[in-house]
Amino acid sequence: MNGKAKGYLLAATAAATYGMNPLFALPLYQSGMNADSVLFFRYLLAIPILGIMIKARGRDFKIKRKEIFPLIIMGLLVSLSSLTLFQSYNFMEAGIASTLLFVYPIMVALIMVVVFCEKVTLLTVFCILMALSGIGLLFKSGDGSTLSLAGTLLVMASALSYAIYIVGVNRPFLKDVATLNITFYVLLFGLSLFLVRVDFGISLIIPEKWYLWFNLLALAIFPTVISFLCTTSAIQYIGSTPTAILGALEPVTAVFFGVMAFGEALTLRIISGIILIILAVTLIIAGSNIKTSLVRFRKLFPRIPIKKQ
Fold first, then answer.
1. How far is CA 203 from CA 38, 137, 213, in A?
2. Which SUPFAM superfamilies match (predicted)?
């Protein structure tokens, strides 16, 4: 397998594993656990795994004093995004919640335009309108009832928090910190939010059945550690843009497991909404490459000069 093919495979794996969040979280909810307890254990179990990975690569945990505060903010943003997403599962089908979450790249584009004065293009406007149309189609659940406004707002808060994190983590103040170390400290500082929310362990709900610990461990490994590793490796092989485009598999995976494992309804309207959102995000991520691709395609069919009579 050549490097490019391996990169695409890794990117697809990263997206698919992140879409497994509902698969492992919903059974924990059904057992009586809440979002705070589930996420507390998810972060708690993922941190030592990442620590082992850092030591295995021969790195240390040192960070500069000026990097501590930005990492705390990044950690709180990620934990807030996780919390609001997992809470939204209580109000709507997990597959739809995960699909709505995938508007975060569009929010990133808007932040870059408003805050950093990047030029807005017609393609960006078109993609935003397309995504909003997709959200409109998803604003009813499989049985035809309108989705909970609270659930929708929670997902939008999750997407916005993650979008701010995506913009912030690429700022110069963290440019000297290794990606693996950033993730380690983001999870470490993010854990503090859930530690407070479970009253420092007083209101923590511990799984009563032993096999539910496999769900918690799976949450720490698949959507967290494996997804991160594959994303990082994929970027090294094929770059960030193709890796991000394959991130469209995240909501597809979530919907797939929602339908197959939990019997969630999948209608033509929901499918259309998903397609619109995925197309919008794919176009806005790949927009800079579209013109180049069209020019290359046009060169395959050169004009034949017309001979004058």
1. 12, 38, 18
2. Multidrug resistance efflux transporter EmrE
CB 24, CB 207: distance < 8 Å: no
Which of 7, 3, 6, 2 shows the shortest CA–CA distance to 242? 7
Query: ∠ CA 42-12-118 to the nearest 5 degrees?
Result: 90
- Give pLDDT tens digits for 83-113: 999 999 889 877 778 778 878 878 887 888 8
Identity at 199, one-letter amino acid code: D
pLDDT tier for residue 287 given thresholds of 50, 70 and 90: low
Domain ranges of the chain: 3-300
Hey, is 146 helix, strand or coil?
strand
As to burial, measured by CB atoms within 10 angstroms (0-12 exposed, 13-18 middle, 19+ buried), residue 24 is buried
Q: Which residue has the tokens 């500069």?
A: 64
CA distances 95 to 29, 85, 270, 271, 274, Å, are 15, 11, 10, 11, 10
What is the band of 277 on the pLDDT scale with cuts at 50, 70, 90? Answer: confident
Distance CA 229, CA 295 (A): 34
Angle value at C-alpha 85, between 130 and 154, nearest 5 degrees: 70
User: In whole angstroms, what is the distance from residue 4 CA to residue 187 CA?
Assistant: 30
Nearest-angstrom CA–CA distance, 273 and 124: 18
Rounded to 10 degrees, what is the CA torsion of 48, 49, 52, 53?
-140
